[in-house]
Protein 1
Amino acid sequence: MNELAAAVPWLGKRNPLAARWLIIILAITAPLVAWQFGKSWVRILDFALLYMLLAMGLNLVVGFAGLLDLGYIAFYAVGAYTFAFLASPHFDVHLPFWTILPLGAGFAAMAGIMLGFPVLRLRGDYLAIVTLGFGEIVRIFMLNLNYPVNITNGPQGINMIDPINLFGWDLSRNLQIGENFSINSLFLYYYFFLLAVAGSIVFVHRLQISRVGRAWAAMRDDELAAKAIGINTRNMKLLAFSLGATFGGLSGCLFGAFQGFVSPESFSLMESIAVLTMVVFGGMGNIAGALVGAFVLALLPEILRDVAVPLQQTLFGHVLLDPEVLRMLLLSLAMILMMLLRPAGLIPARARYSHDHHLSNKLKQEAAK
Amino acid sequence: MKKTVVAFAIMSIGLGAAQAQEVVKLGSAAPLTGTIAHLGKDLENGTRMAVEALNAQGVTIGGKKVKFELIGEDDQADPRTGTTVAQRLVDAGVKGVIGHLNSGTSIPASRIYDQGGIPQISPASTNPKLTQQNFKGVFRTIANDVQQGGALGKFAVKSLGAKKVAIIDDRTAYGQGLADETEKAVKASGAQVVAREFTTDKATDFNAILTKIRATAPDVIFFGGMDAQAGPMLRQMKQLGINAKFLTGDGGCSPEMIKLAGEAMSASTYCSMAGLPLDKMPGGAAFREQYKKRFGGEVQLYAPYAYDAATAIVKAMEKAGSPEPSKYLPELKKINFNGVTGNVAFDDKGDIKEGAVTIYSFKDGNWVPM
Amino acid sequence: MTPRSVVGVMPARLMDPTAAPDWRLVRLGRGIMETLIQQLINGLVIGSVYALIALGYTMVYGILGLINFAHGDVLMVGALVALQTMTFLMGMAPGMSPLVMLSIALLVAIVVCMLLGFTMERLAYRRLRNAPRLAPLITAIGVSFLLQTIAMIIWGRNYHTYPQLISTTPLQPIEGVFITPVQITIIFGSAALMIGLLLLVNRTKIGRAMRATAENHRVASLMGVDTNAVIAFTFVIGAGLAAVAGVMFASNYGIAHYGMGFMPGLKAFTAAVLGGIGNLGGAMLGGLVLGVVESFGAGYIENLTFGFLNSSYQDIFAFLILGLVLIFRPTGLLGERVSDRA
């Protein structure tokens, strides 16, 4: 769990224990603070947690196993649509939440293996473009499978999806305690998602220091050498794809239930790129990096939405640029500058689990000669 | 944990307390950025005009003088942003919402408004599904796709005398919905749909599908989509030597379309718009004048419908004697008055009764109602 | 021809003699040859543009191993700068011959894009040459967003009509087959540029330096090649080609927009990988193959799948063909060796 402590800038290095508690306290109190600025901020936090799940899953594939996946959002889509099919008036099926969740994760994992098999031989950027294509193909099928048999309802999307229901406890209703107390549904979702994120952190952390995690690291750093010491790289790659996809599927299910409406436009290539950006921005190959990246990039645009206009008014006296334009401008500049100043991300992965690129590149070049 | 619960309680009580009656907030949500920003702004302007007119007039609700305040939000025509913006409006304590523009945004947002117990009137979303969700407070002041597509299909067959029609859509909720309804109407009117082709809302090259359509020699080609695709599509039709008539819905019924299609526009280019042309609306001429004076530009499309939507909400509040949604919603369902666009009254689903559809053709560099 | 021999007839319709004539029959029955040739032309035109853009991707990748995600947006800048120049010239010298006007606009666009390519390399990419592999990719995505936003500020959000200075009145070389002078110019223009580029890379001194740098940076610099200059040069040439492609693209469709570079950029990148990234001939072949496959795919998929799939699947052909080729030839059509950069 010391991984997490790295997310706290100064304290993390000096007193990891304190840093960890700080994070836990912050995570629990965050929606209470957000509430002061309006419900919509709690909602934004809910989405940020979903992005954290996604970023963690993608980090397994890209950061741990070194497989560049540009079509990751496809698994998110598989999860969301699985939930929509099985808990909405669309097919008039309403299975319980706990039945669908493993199904969604399972289908996504299967999709991950389906993607993994054909691309086993591909490396680096070839892999990137084929996964990108995979993501687009999944989206295009979701968009068009309303003919000849209506499966996905095409561009209209699927509406009226059932909310998350935990053993008869409907998360979309405010929780009434006594007569005057009620806890807003958005808080319920927040803490449920937070639980999912916390569970994933523990799982991913155990995974990283397990045999599998070390095998991935070996494969990422040098595939040939990994093979030579007896690692079954084929299985390891498939495992990475399917586990990463599982996370995508899970968060997809949660997204479908939370939003209540899914349509293909939520799963475009830009979303894949956004999640990848979160992972790289935060720092590839470590959990804290992926989490911080997702958190910062999910919140930044929304904060800019509120700040953009007043800021210009105080600076120039009138609005020079639309908030939307300014938002894009700052976001793109942040991406460029961040990578120029800290190419390994906000929180670089610790050397133990990642190789020093500089050194290995040199070695590789030597080997090539 | 106990402290947390207390904190929740304090906050929910704080927010639940009744607000001051003097200022009533109304919300407007539409895409103010992106490719259809001009239409979104038009929607917001229409609402703003209504609010300013009502404030100038002075409105009394339940014996109290009331001032209206409009909060405009940008939904970027994106479903997820739409829900976030909807939540922001609910947070801000608006008593009614005029919006959104796109059906794909209106539908997910309507759930948030329903949870917040706030009525929503869309002056622009034409997808039939919007009002079929069994939400109590969802209305629209514009004819839906069934009405528009029906008119388009009938026009193609009956007025243009088409026997073979080719249909293209852009795979958006809007384009597909309209194209499907048009296809139904074409078949019902006794003509044949000889080709059903598809493109996307980001495409610029339509040569492949147009070549395929050319082989079926249609009399009319219908496109369900926006002007940015319809313009180049019409050009490419001419370049491929297709002389079929071109018909499109309200997405292509803009001055922008005339610009983008250039010389390819001809007298055999038609488009439809839900609603009456502004000049034929009962209060159209006066509305145009006022709009120009206030915003310094021409009415694009949705401003009069947004104006009527805002007026409907306020009239319902006056009748109920309360700006609280739960009180005025029953009055809104029964509302019946003469607005800018004509008689405003809703059926039991929330669709406008007697939604009109007008077909335009291209003449002397302009869209002219037929 | 018996109806049975036609691909894609729904059998149920044939059983019922009273049913309306199936339009799938009609479609293949009329002008099969004309349609076939027309689809080939459609594919070649768009394929030539893809090829030209793909060259820029492949050159940069060959030398740096970097996916320059912003390449498609350079195309957009090229098209819009040329548009601005033409609008300016039309205002200044209304009587100017269209061809001269186009040449000037093209020249300005090329110069601006070359400067842009140079700046991009110098400011955004050079520092990242030894960074972890994904960092430059993220920077490139950032540059892409930045270019789009700046273009949005300068040229607004609306679509622009693009002056078509070369005629778009269709010619009929064969009865029933149409091609416009713009399209002819695009096919031959890009072919000429590609030949020029091949000559540059294979026959000149700077070309040799480029090849050496692509082979091995450090050895090349030890042999006295100024690798920094060579890399900058590569970016500049790629950007210049993108400018030309942008003007071609916009002139052909008569439309320009700040987001217009994304889709062709993506397709061209696919084409470059299809042909074997890093290989110039491969990029050209990949572009043309992709264009033709897309065109035929959209035109005939419905008949090939018995009406189950239709042209709404047009955009998946690029990726399907790519997947298939890479499964059997993991380095693309003309790729030589696996470049292990993972």
Protein 2
Amino acid sequence: MKKIILLFCFFSCVTWSQESSQFFDKQGKITFFSYTSVENIQASNNQVVSIFKPSTSDIVVRILMRAFVFEKALMQEHFNESYIETDIFPEATFVGKIIGFDINNDIQTKRFEGQFTLHGVTKNIRFNAKILKIGATYEISGTLEIPVRDYEIKIPMLLDPNIAEIISVNFNFQYDLYEK
Amino acid sequence: MISMKNKTSSVKGIIYFVLLSFSCIINAQEDLLDAINSIETDTEFNTLATFKATRISIGQSVITREKGVLEVTWQNRFWNTPDSVSTAFVADKVNVRFELAYGVTDRLTIGAGYGTGYTSVDAFAKYRLLYQKDTGKKFPISVTLFQSIAHREKNPGDFITRDLDFEEKLGFTTQLLIARKFSPNFSLQFSPTYFHREADKFLPEPDTNRFALGFGARYKISHHVSIVSEYYALLDSVNDPQSYGPFALGVNWEIASIQLQFNITNARNLVEDKFIGKTLQNFNFRNGNLHFGFQATYLFHFNKK
């Protein structure tokens, strides 16, 4: 009996790992916008790394903060030096799950839930995104909103009118099969 | 007895099963995190903002402006004369210099300035040779070359009795600026300096080729405010006992596109060859020796990415 159960366990684990093919994107795109009446700020990052595992609907994202490119060189310096403090917090990460992901559906919009870590602060976030299955690849894209205050990013009073309270973030990932 | 044994083993089995499948789930999450952290991104970044401004306080920093950035700078130095009675408003004397500098490339900045002290016109070029890198292929220091040429309309001193020719009014400064950002808050710079002042050939003991070693440091006390200090040691002051090494203690404040630099110093001139080589008063708090410096820089971005 014990052996049978152990054998079952073993096989279930083996089949699990066989099914658990992972998809990854090394050049995911994230663009964020801060719109205020004073100033519009936009920055994009084309080097975002993400892994998506359809079998468990797990998704992880790793964002190198230094790779954000701004219109103005000075803004980029301020972003890294004074706001995000990339010397201390070089990366932002998202670890989450897609709720109700259907592996057999080619086009679906689902809720993503997980933990987002930015500037050393971890918050639970949820947002909707579109998942496309194109042949043997996946594409996930969507928009979410990040309140600056939640992540202990300090903005000097003088610059308060220049930076939006809520930053909108667009993302687009094109996943290929990840071969280890 | 036998059924009892079977029961225990099946309970054990279930526990094994639960533990095993649980470990599988945990592995899946950990695997994913491990996997994503093991993916190498081929990105290499230069260390940012060793100093925030192109000047530490009174002297040049390793920083060059990014391509397409125009820097407009207004420099002031205020001081009082030692006279006991003064009718001047705020301060007895002031030196002003206005400067424009442009980032031709990320590495090359060129600029020019006009100053009221001795009515000087100067031009300079700064070239960033090496960038400090803390990620990827690491490199410990930043190195920048600085070259300036200045022309002064007014005679530099009483020891000259005749009108000077054009060439005789020139002064040159060459600097090798070497800096390291040790931590997000602390940066240090060494600035070996050579300067050549034509007019120095009229000195009782002529010495037109001279050397100095500059030291500069900044410490960030908040995201936008830092404390800075600078000193230039004259390496061959024997021939010129009247000159003292310029010292400055200052506060730099930057907000959006504006950088404000305040300092107290013994240097009243604003162009390198003059304030490094010809600071005729030592640093103390007496009138005539203490100078209050104020400098404002505004940055315009012409090259939007």
